[in-house]
Amino acid sequence: MVTDHVKGYQHVGIPAENIEETRKFYTSLGFKAKYETINNEKPVVFYELGDILIETYERKEGVAKVTGAVDHIALNAVDIVSCYEELKKGGFDIAEGPCHLPFWDHGVIYVVINGPNKERVEFIQQFKSEEEKDNALKALGIPEKAPEA
């Protein structure tokens, strides 16, 4: 079962029209910027408050600007390879992935599925070592994404 490979919540992803306006909003609530990077030439900022992690990012496609417009909820996968295999075996609508991103110290691999209400659920593994990441990349047959400038 897919949930055998999940250990709790990882983050909620929120697209941002203006990353600096978004930064001002979340820091005024008490969140601290925990990690910042560029992905697809757009800024990405993760904010943390206690055990709450929020990912904000500018999108080339823009943002929905409607109530309820959260892009995805991410679940913390402890074994993304087995998780992906279970998702495929279970016939889930895989929308994206598996994909590697050079986020955090040793990168992440994620898979996104679509739910029945067009919600997106992401399964993501943040690696504790380069060896752990390299083993998962090899098992999934995906190349490591080069860091973006």
Could you please describe the fold and organization of this structure?
The chain is α+β, with helices and mostly antiparallel strands and about 150 residues long. The chain has helices spanning about 20-30, 80-90, 130-140, and strands at about 5-15, 30-40, 40-50, 50-60, 70-75, 95-100, 110-115, 120-125. It is built from three helices and eight strands, in the order βαββββαβββα. Strands 2-3-4-1-5-8-7-6 form an eight-stranded mixed beta sheet. The longest helix is centred in the last third of the chain and has 11 residues, at about 130-140. The mean pLDDT is about 90.
Entry summary:
The chain is an alpha+beta fold and 149 residues long.
Write a concise keyword list for the protein shown above.
149 residues; alpha+beta; 2,3-Dihydroxybiphenyl 1,2-Dioxygenase, domain 1; eight-stranded mixed beta sheet; 3 helices; 8 strands
Please write out the topology.
Elements: E1 6-16, H1 19-28, E2 32-39, E3 42-49, E4 52-58, E5 72-77, H2 80-89, E6 93-101, E7 108-114, E8 120-126, H3 130-140
* Tally of structural domains: 1
Low-confidence stretches: none
How much strand? 35-45%
Indicate the overall shape: globular
CATH H level, superfamily name: 2,3-Dihydroxybiphenyl 1,2-Dioxygenase, domain 1
